[in-house]
Amino acid sequence: MIKLKDPFGGIILNVAFRALVPFTIVYGIYVLCLGEFSPGGGFQAGALLSVGVLLARLILGSDAKFNIAGQTSIVMAGLGTFLYAFTGWLTLFGGADYFLDYNYMPVHLEPAHEMHALAIFMIEIGVAICVMMTIINLLDSIVKMGDDDGRTE
Amino acid sequence: MQIYLVEAAFLVILILITCAVIFCKDILSASIIYSAFSFCAVLLYLMMGSPDVAFTEAVIGTISTIFFVASLKKIDRWCE
Q1: What is the pLDDT of residue A35?
Q2: Which chain B residue has the Cα nearest residue A131?
Q3: pTM of the prediction?
Q4: Which domain range does residue B13 map to?
Q5: Does B56 touch chain A (CB under 8 A)?
Q6: Which residues pair with B26 in a beta bridge?
């Protein structure tokens, strides 16, 4: 696992982290689910969901339990992108003429905008996973870039 | 009319914060002041009537500050 030597710890940061992170995660899921009617959407939800892991990595250091380690983040970012593409393929297999034509989802719900909402929700989940894991992977790259003196090995 | 005055005041504050970030010798202070720049930009976007952009700016301002502080562990804090 990638290590951040001597993390920013301390009792105040620890307690603030424990109190803050559940609210950011719940707010991220709220933004993800209500992104059609209110400001927000996949990108903002993914960024909010990644804040918890970033703070855990910075405050608790390498022995944080609430963590997503190195290679997992890259794999999950690809999975999010795949979920986006898979929604488009579903519409194509349903008989659509072009990519992401929401009227041709394989699940037939009676008012057409219900189908649109389902497809858009799948896409937003994919975008959220991809953005969250990409931000975590960026922190991995920054931390890995050298030892404490700034030298790259 | 008053909203234009408030908007102009925020624009002036934005320019002042930018000058402070440029001329600050302490990189940690510069990154913290840069988050104040982000906050003023959020308020300006809200006044101009785009809460979506404001929300994105708020989240990305927080995360970029985290990245700056994390990369400060690797380099020297003072730029001279």
Answers
A1: 79
A2: B60
A3: 0.85
A4: 2-72
A5: yes
A6: B78
